[in-house]
Design goal:
367 residues; 16% strand; seven-stranded mixed sheet; eight-stranded mixed sheet; 15 strands; alpha/beta; 35% helix
Length: 367
């Protein structure tokens, strides 16, 4: 199969979907791999690195899209790429269509067969392609939050680890999944006073065992309100795979954080977990609501492209190979993971939570 990897078009997105090592493995399996020139530069991989393992280098974006059967990306297609959609194309990347109706409409209109990294699920309900980026985003959420707590960046001038007689900063993490755990680990390691909120006592218990001294709280509207009134940095790490994120953080909760506090919403890819959430970009990452600094960057892992690319590509490669080896129909038939990842097929939405979020009819993959 002919596999294409374009350069990412999202603002300051420097990750690349396949490393030279992974591309070499695909070539050895008999596939042709076409890389857009400079696609790997931001992650430390040159065109020559890809040529050395048997890849061809394309000069333009159109050269990649128009000459491959399987297009592999990191982030959802940019509007500049919509013109290349076609019915015989397989697309495999992060889609997050629940919060991107225009991308969904374009894919459905052109009948692209699209698989989403974020909904690929194993039989034991793991999300192996989302997990590494959730871990990176969780760690970066605390680093970015601590940066914007600095007074010169508009924050209230709190050092998360404290110093001497000064108490540590207070970090509140909502969600105890992969991203929430990573945020908790980073904040705890920095010496902050950490509280984690979730509806699962099992997840909270595991965090207490791993990070002695943190506070864990069952998430309710009342407990969230109390927590927001006592925190310097709020981290939103709520996830419902494929669906729009529920808005569990109210305007009153945001207001309770107080002036020059910081809110980092990791959930923003799926719409965000606060009523005040909106997407931002790496070149303009923040805005204020009621004096609280909001950080809503949808591609936080792009800040560490070398690490993020290597972590993500290692997980996606086996599934890219499966699609390339078998084609879409056989891959879906043989792999429950790929069946879960199938999001668009023949102009139909095949992921139920995404369909419900967009108000579009759902079609079961089996049909």
């Amino acid at each position: 199969m002919h596999i294409g990897v374009p350069r990412e078009r999202k603002t300051l997105e420097k990750r690349v979907a396949i490393t030279p090592e992974g591309a070499g493995q695909l070539v050895q399996r008999g596939h042709a791999v076409l890389i857009e020139t400079s696609a790997g530069d931001g992650s430390g991989f040159s065109d020559d690195d890809y040529r050395a393992v048997g890849c061809k280098i394309a000069k333009t974006l159109g050269d990649v899209w128009n000459n491959v059967e399987l297009l592999v990306k990191v982030k959802e297609p940019d509007p500049s790429e919509f013109e290349f959609f076609r019915a015989d194309l397989l697309l495999f990347d992060f889609l997050h269509l629940a919060s991107l109706p225009e991308v969904a409409k374009a894919l459905l209109a052109k009948k692209v067969t699209a698989f989403a990294y974020e909904t690929l699920q194993t039989p034991n309900r793991r999300l192996p392609l989302l997990e590494p980026m959730s871990e990176v985003a969780g760690k970066l959420s605390v680093l970015n939050g601590s940066y914007f707590l600095l007074s010169q960046n508009g924050g209230r001038g709190v050092l998360l680890g404290g110093a001497g007689a000064a108490p540590p900063g207070r970090v509140m993490v909502v969600g105890a999944g992969i991203a929430g755990r990573a945020a908790c680990s980073t904040a705890h390691g920095m010496g902050a006073a950490v509280s984690v909120y979730d509806i699962s006592n099992e997840k909270l218990s595991a965090l207490r065992d791993d990070f002695p001294g943190i506070e864990t709280v069952i998430s309710t509207p009342e407990s969230l309100m109390r927590g927001c009134s006592q925190t310097d940095l709020l981290i939103g790490a709520v996830l419902v795979p494929g669906a729009a994120t529920p808005k569990i953080i109210t305007r009153e909760m945001i207001r309770a954080i107080g002036p020059r506090g910081v809110f980092v919403d990791i959930s923003i890819d799926q719409g965000g977990c606060a009523v005040t959430s909106k997407p931002t970009t790496l070149d303009n990452p923040t805005y204020e609501v009621d004096g609280v600094i909001h950080y809503g960057v949808c591609n936080m892992p792009a800040q560490t492209p070398r690490t993020s690319t290597m972590a993500l590509a290692a997980q996606t490669l086996p599934y890219v190979a499966l699609l390339a080896d078998l084609g879409a129909a056989k891959a879906i038939h043989q792999s429950s993971e790929m069946k879960a990842a199938l999001t668009c097929f023949d102009g139909k939405l095949t992921n139920k939570p995404t369909a419900e979020a967009l108000g579009i009819a759902y079609s079961a993959p089996a049909a």
